[in-house]
C-alpha cells in the first residue's frame, strides 16, 4: 500500500539553493549569512521535489560547518515533526521549486584543502570554517603540512602569505588578513596556535603556504 503522503525528505539548505550532497559545507564556504532546512516530497530527481516547509537560521561569522550541521540537525528534527502534523491536518500546500533559482553543490574532498593566501581573508576564513571538521584546510609552515582548524578575520595587510604578527599568529591574505587560532602539525595533535609557536621559530616577515 502506498504511503499516504509519499516519501518526505529533509534537506540542509533553503531549496532550490544547494541541491546535492554538501549543502551545509557549501553555505559556509560561500560565506552565506542565512541558511536553513527544507522538508520536501521526494521525486525521481536529486532534491527536486515539491517544498513542504522551510525553517531559516543565521550563520555566525566564525561558525564551522560541523557546528552548523549540529544546529540544522536539531532544526530539521523540529521541522519534520511540524511538517507531519500539518500534513495530517491538511494544512500544507506543496510548492514547486523554481528551477531558475536552483544551484548544485560541488563534491567536497581533499583537493579543496590547500589554502591560497592570495585570496581574500574572507575567502580563506570561509574555507577554514567550511572544511572543519572534514577534510580540514591545510597550509605549509617551514615546508611541512599543517591542518588549520580555526581562524579569525583581521584588518592588517601585507604581502600575501607573510606573517604580520607572531603573537597572535596573523597571516596576510590577498585582501586583509587572518589570525590562525588552532592548527595541527603533521604527525602531532591539534593545538592552539600559540602552543605551536612555542615550539617553532617563526618571525614577522616569514612566508607560509610555500
Summarize, please.
The chain has 210 residues and is α+β, with helices and mostly antiparallel strands. The protein is built from four helices and nine strands; from the N terminus they run E-H-E-E-H-H-E-E-E-E-E-E-H.
Main attributes of the structure:
alpha+beta; Rossmann fold; 2 domains; three-stranded antiparallel beta sheet; 4 helices; 9 strands
Strand coverage percent:
25-35%
Instruction: Tally the structural domains.
Output: 2
Instruction: State the CATH architecture of the largest domain.
Output: 3-Layer(aba) Sandwich
- Sheet having the most strands: 6 strands, antiparallel
What is the fourth-level CATH superfamily of the largest domain? Formyl transferase, N-terminal domain
CATH domain class of the largest domain: Alpha Beta
Distance between the termini: 62 Å
Order of helices and strands: EHEEHHEEEEEEH
Instruction: Return the average pLDDT rounded to an integer.
Output: 96
Which parts are unreliable, with pLDDT below 50 for 5 consecutive residues or more? none
CATH-derived topology of the largest domain: Rossmann fold
Number of beta strands: 9
- Radius of gyration based on Cα positions: 21 Å
Overall structural class, as computed from helix and strand content, comes to: alpha+beta
Q: Would you kindly provide a written description of the structure presented here, covering whatever features stand out?
A:
The protein has helices spanning 23-29, 65-88, 121-130, 193-198, and strands spanning 8-11, 34-41, 51-58, 137-141, 144-154, 163-165, 170-172, 177-185, 191-192. With 210 residues, the chain is α+β, with helices and mostly antiparallel strands. It folds into two domains: 8-101, 3-Layer(aba) Sandwich (Rossmann fold), CATH 3.40.50.170; 110-198, Methionyl-tRNA Fmet Formyltransferase, Chain A, domain 2 (Roll), CATH 3.10.25.10. The strands form two sheets. Strands 4, 5, 6, 7, 8 and 9 form a six-stranded antiparallel sheet that branches. The chain has a three-stranded antiparallel sheet with strand order 1-2-3. It is elongated, with a radius of gyration of 21 Å.
Amino acid at each position: 500500500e502506498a504511503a499516504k503522503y509519499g516519501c518526505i525528505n529533509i534537506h540542509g539548505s533553503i531549496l532550490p539553493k544547494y541541491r546535492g550532497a554538501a549543502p551545509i559545507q557549501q553555505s559556509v564556504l560561500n560565506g552565506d549569512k542565512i541558511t536553513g532546512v527544507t522538508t520536501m516530497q521526494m521525486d525521481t530527481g536529486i532534491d527536486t521535489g515539491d517544498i513542504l516547509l522551510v525553517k531559516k537560521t543565521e550563520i555566525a561569522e566564525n561558525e564551522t560547518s560541523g557546528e552548523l550541521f549540529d544546529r540544522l540537525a536539531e532544526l530539521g528534527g523540529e521541522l519534520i515533526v511540524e511538517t507531519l502534523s500539518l500534513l495530517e491536518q491538511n494544512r500544507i500546500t506543496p510548492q514547486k521549486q523554481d528551477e531558475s533559482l536552483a544551484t548544485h553543490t560541488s563534491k567536497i574532498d581533499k583537493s579543496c584543502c590547500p589554502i591560497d593566501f592570495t585570496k581574500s581573508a574572507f575567502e580563506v576564513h570561509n574555507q577554514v570554517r567550511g572544511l572543519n571538521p572534514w577534510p580540514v584546510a591545510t597550509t605549509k609552515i617551514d615546508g611541512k603540512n599543517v591542518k588549520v582548524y580555526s581562524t579569525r578575520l583581521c584588518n592588517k595587510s601585507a604581502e600575501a602569505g607573510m606573517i604580520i604578527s607572531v603573537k597572535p599568529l596573523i597571516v596576510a591574505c590577498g585582501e586583509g588578513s587572518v589570525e590562525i587560532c588552532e592548527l595541527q602539525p603533521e604527525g602531532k595533535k591539534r593545538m592552539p596556535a600559540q602552543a605551536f609557536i612555542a615550539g617553532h621559530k617563526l618571525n614577522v616577515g616569514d612566508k607560509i603556504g610555500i
